[in-house]
Amino acid sequence: MRIAFYAPMKPPNHPTPSGDRRMARMLIAALRKAGHRVELASRFRSYHGNGDPAGQRRLKALGNRLADRLVGKYQGLPASRRPGAWFTYHLYHKAPDWLGPAVSGALGIPYVLAEASHAPKQENGPWAIGYAASEKAIRGANLVFGLNPADRECVKPLLGGGGRIVALKPFIDAAPYLAAAAGRARHHREIAGRFGLEDGVPWLLAVAMMRQGDKLESYRLLGRALGGLLDRPWRLLVAGAGPARGQVEAALEGLGGRVSRLDATAGDLPALYAASDIFVWPAVNEAFGMAFIEAQAAGLAVVAGNAGGVPAVVGDGESGILAAVGDAQAFASAVARLLDDGALRERMGRAAQKRVRTEHDLGPAARLIGETLKELAKGPGT
């Protein structure tokens, strides 16, 4: 089937890396692995961050014009070259879908969503325009893949009898991380030599963009938490970049010489995960966190904040330890437990890899998506 793919929050070919971009790319990979032909329908970003109604109206008008153009484009193609379904990833009040409902309705094709969220408290707030559009889109969806269990309660009632929601766990292509874990000792030596890191102490790893808002607050909380563990040997490795780098460095300043910021590329990450001992991230307002899945695939035990969809990707007491969100002392206690118990770290690391292989890998996700879309294509009563 030809599928028109669209990500209103951030297109998959956007130059700035993020978990959102990563998940969009993984969905495209899964659709293709399931045998579908995927085409990016538009790079139009409907995201509006400050809630200004005039700005939202401008985006709506532009979206409506683009939708009309897409309808004309597709209707001018032979039936064999038109999309058989529209697939939108990450729709919510700040990033509504002005394209998909119009195009799918005009072409008479299924409208599919992944990671749709609905927040009733926004109905009369600054994003009322985007809220109304998102609610209408969800109500018209034939199918919603729910990536974050926290969204299900508000989304499901909107679907009524015309659509359904299918749980789809966030996923990655785990192969590079699983392979890196098999060479853990070698990667540890190479990373130590490359970045001049001392051996013989546990390496804590954080991988996250350095930007304002929740990411910066997570770094600040991490600095406060680890500041209470200076009586133990460890080194914090930070792989990240962004406009808030100076503020991140200030947030970690109290840790003294125990912090190493690594200029690591995406290709370095599997080896970096494998070379480390514990993955640490407070996850303030995190949706679910792709880095948690990557770390676990490389065999790392995780300490994370118990936020949003994080419990869906990190098994508390199984592949890691979840601490109350925003509680620096609880986070520090969880890290201390893993620092003090190497056997527990190894046991959780093995469980983490097993979890990713069975629940968060590209293969199982592609099978679920493929089977679900096949059923959708058959139509009701077949």
Sheet having the most strands: 6 strands, parallel
- The rounded Rg comes to 22 Å
Number of strands: 12
Q: Give, in spatial order, the strands making up the sheet with the most strands.
A: 2-1-3-4-5-6
Q: Look at the structure and give the mean pLDDT.
A: 94
| Secondary-structure element order, N to C | EHEHEHEHEHEHHEHEHEHEHEHEHHH
The computed structural class is alpha/beta
Q: State the shape.
A: globular
- Low-pLDDT runs of 5+ residues are none
Number of helices: 15
- First-to-last CA distance: 18 Å
| Oligomeric state of shown chains | single chain
Strand content: 5-15%
Q: How much helix is in the residues?
A: 40-55%
Protein model, in words:
The protein has 382 residues and is α/β, with parallel strands linked by helices. Helices cover 46% and strands 15% of the residues. It contains 15 helices and twelve strands. The protein has a six-stranded parallel sheet with strand order 2-1-3-4-5-6, with helices on both faces. A six-stranded parallel sheet has the order 9-8-7-10-11-12, with helices on both faces. It starts with a strand and ends with a helix.
